[in-house]
Specification:
This protein has 124 residues and is an all-alpha fold. The chain has one domain. The protein has helices spanning 2-28, 38-44, 76-120. Helix 1 packs across helix 3.
Length: 124
């Protein structure tokens, strides 16, 4: 059971990280790798500066956003805790998706085996 739990946690953590990375890229990046011109990217994705919003342990904001020199690296520990908590929340969904995927793979392998046997003339 431990490998399934570990793999599901890693997959859910990578999904959470990909989602947050895509969000940061769209809202805060300069879009140098985008096909859109930079001025159009800022209009479409409503360019925003990073702002630090103090939050409690459950992630609820405590007050107004604080402008200033709050950088990503200064809040990495909080971001990591938040992403790990989100990964634990979606882990059961990932286990269900992995179960469905494995059932589909087993069904496909069974059908391929039956087709191969009938092709060789080993079955009726």
């Amino acid at each position: 059971m431990t490998p399934i739990i570990f793999i599901s946690f890693l997959i859910s953590l990578s999904l959470v990280d990909m989602r947050h990375s895509a969000k940061r890229k769209h809202y805060h990046a300069e879009a140098r790798d985008s096909r859109m011109p930079q001025w159009l990217h800022r209009i479409v994705f409503r360019y925003q500066r990073y702002r630090y919003v103090p939050a409690d342990n459950q992630g609820r904001p405590l007050g107004e956003a604080v402008d200033g020199h709050q950088y990503y690296h200064s809040n990495q520990r909080k971001l990591m805790r938040m992403e790990v908590a989100e990964a634990f929340e979606i882990r059961s969904t990932v286990v269900m998706a992995l179960g469905l995927f494995s059932l589909c793979v087993l069904w496909g392998a069974w059908k391929a085996l039956l087709w191969g046997l009938s092709f060789c003339g080993l079955t009726r």
